[in-house]
Amino acid sequence: MSRIFPFLWFDRQAEEAVNFYLSVFEDSKIISTQRYDESSAKAAHMEPGSVLTLGFEIAGQSFTALNGGPAFKLNPSISFHIRCETVEEVDRYYEKLEDGGLVRMPLEKYHFSERFAWVEDRYGVSWQIIHAGDTMSTDQKIVPCLLFVGDQFGKTEQAVKQFISIFDNSSLEYIDKATEADPNPIGSVRYASFKLDGYEMVAMESDAKHDFAFNEAVSFVVSCNDQAEVDYYWDKLSEGGQESMCAWLKDRYGISWQVVPKRLHELLGDPDKIKAGRAMQAMLQMRKIIIADLEKAAEGE
């Protein structure tokens, strides 16, 4: 399994949203639940004991949902392709995800697919539901899609190549560029498929005017085994970007990442609530996570 997975920021609807996704997708379950303690609740203006994060799987793939408050709003700059084997499957997902949501591209035939629709569900998450047929990846049903617009238009190929250079087991699988027949400038990226540490993603770009851009509402967690990996990914991904708090950063393109050591989850999940609380308090003061300092704090040193 790849070290990379998506992290979704909700206001106070994470539990409701996750339960909805579990009802939509097969092979789905909640993996873990973390709750706000006194210190984290105060920092986030939430209630102590309320749900902080839910780790879950849909279609066998890892996600995390956060009750983070109203600071960031989900938008179509990062969406999720659902690759379907049949048109009936497309219709089934469309019916469930469109209910109470917004249709960005109606369900119909397009030049790139026999059956396709782009919808925002009732919680604001964007889905591109596509009949992939024989071209469907057997390894990954749900694939994040990065849409480079505004100031980031024209940087897609550069970004993809940079990401590939950072992660092992990575490759550019396919790239399609605009021609004279396209609305975007010739040579701009219509569609790029790539893998980072075996995790499949796609990217597109558009020079049309859009009222959205990359933000923290969708980020990507990079799970690290030790401090050396934390240091490496933090330095590489934040170069030219912006460091934030609690393992968060923005890369030079405005995409948000969380560089998280596995040890952090162990400490925050310690059955000794006092130790876990001390680890949480220490984490809230950090930008890049320093494992040794977390461990000392957890022990009360």
Question: Which key terms come to mind for this protein?
Answer:
301 residues; alpha+beta; 2,3-Dihydroxybiphenyl 1,2-Dioxygenase, domain 1; Signal recognition particle alu RNA binding heterodimer, srp9/1; 8-stranded mixed β-sheet; 8 helices; globular
Describe this structure as you would to a colleague:
The protein has 301 residues and is of the alpha+beta class. The chain has two domains: 4-70 and 217-298, 2,3-Dihydroxybiphenyl 1,2-Dioxygenase, domain 1 (Roll); 78-205, 2-Layer Sandwich (Signal recognition particle alu RNA binding heterodimer, srp9/1). Helices cover 27% and strands 35% of the residues. The chain has helices at 14-24, 38-44, 87-98, 156-166, 227-238, 262-268, 273-284, 291-298; strands at 4-10, 29-35, 51-58, 61-67, 78-84, 102-110, 113-120, 126-131, 142-148, 171-177, 189-196, 199-205, 218-224, 242-243, 248-250, 256-261. The chain has an eight-stranded mixed β-sheet with strand order 2-3-4-1-13-16-15-14, with helices on both faces. The longest helix has 12 residues, at 87-98. The relative contact order is 0.13.
Number of strands: 16
Oligomer: single chain
Strand order of the largest sheet: 2-3-4-1-13-16-15-14
CATH class of the largest domain: Alpha Beta
Q: Strand content of the residues, in percent?
A: 35-45%
Topology of helices and strands:
Blueprint: E1 4-10, H1 14-24, E2 29-35, H2 38-44, E3 51-58, E4 61-67, E5 78-84, H3 87-98, E6 102-110, E7 113-120, E8 126-131, E9 142-148, H4 156-166, E10 171-177, E11 189-196, E12 199-205, E13 218-224, H5 227-238, E14 242-243, E15 248-250, E16 256-261, H6 262-268, H7 273-284, H8 291-298
